[in-house]
Each structure stands twice: as C-alpha cells, then as structure tokens.
Amino acid sequence: MSGLTVERVREAFAALASGDRRTMLKYWDEDVTFEIPGNHAHAGRHEGLDSFLGFLKTVGELSGGTYTAENVTIMVNAEDGYSVDVNTNRALRAGAPQDSTSPYDLLDVTALHFLRWRDGRIVEGRGVILGDGCSTSALWWSPLNPDGSRRGV
C-alpha cells in the first residue's frame, strides 16, 4: 500500500482520540474488525467502527479517563499494507485510590497493535498484550472491592 508511513499510523490513532468521526474515517474503515485480547467481557472480535469505538468508550469510563497509550515504536511494511505499533498502556480504575498499586486498580502493560491497511485505511486490527500482561489485564477488567466482592465491569 503506497502512502503507509509511520506518520500515517500516528495520525490514525490521533484521529481516534479526536472523537471526530469524519476524521476517523480518513484512517479507519467503517467495517473495520478489531480483536481485543484477553478473557474478560470486552475481549474478542469487534465488528465495525461503532463496536470498536464502544470498546474504547468503555475503557475510558472504567478508567475515569486515565487511560493512556504511550507509543514505544512503530514499524511499517508499506508494500504489503501492514503496520505494528508497540505501546505502554496505563490506566487507574475509576474510583480507585490514586496511589493504588493493586492489579485490580492499576493497568500497566506493554501491548501492540497488528494492523492491516487497504486503500489508506485500517480494515483489520489485532491487539496483543506482551509478557504476563494478559493476567494483569484480566485482573484490571475484574476489579474487587476491599471485602473481596466483585465490582461492576
């Protein structure tokens, strides 16, 4: 795919963060599929941009807006239409003490996105969590109250 660059990948994620659907559609196909790793209620295949945006909205709500993805590196295979970006993802569960280090409250994982591009837009994405991040992620998605009971997800 000509035109696929590291900068275009950055722009695609900035478009998501903008909240402007018209801007998003310059980079993300309306029928994009995105696979979220893990074994929690929101893991699995999200079909269509609205489903993927719904997942991102849930992350924002559950983290009280603290979710961040700090980019480590981006690799591009423009000829075949693929990109991989590696990120450090962090979030503090909404309502958790600011200094909490509990894995039920604090998400801190290294992850990557494996993206397939066609005609300048992302048509398929797969998230991957590195190391023991799947366990950490599962705990964050399944928070406990101080008495051991589960909080709502």
From TrEMBL:
Domain SnoaL-like per the UniProt entry, residue ranges: 9-124
Top-level lineage group: Bacteria
InterPro entries xref list: NTF2-like_dom_sf, SnoaL-like
Pfam families xrefs: SnoaL_2
Protein name: Nuclear transport factor 2 family protein
Organism: Streptomyces pyxinicus
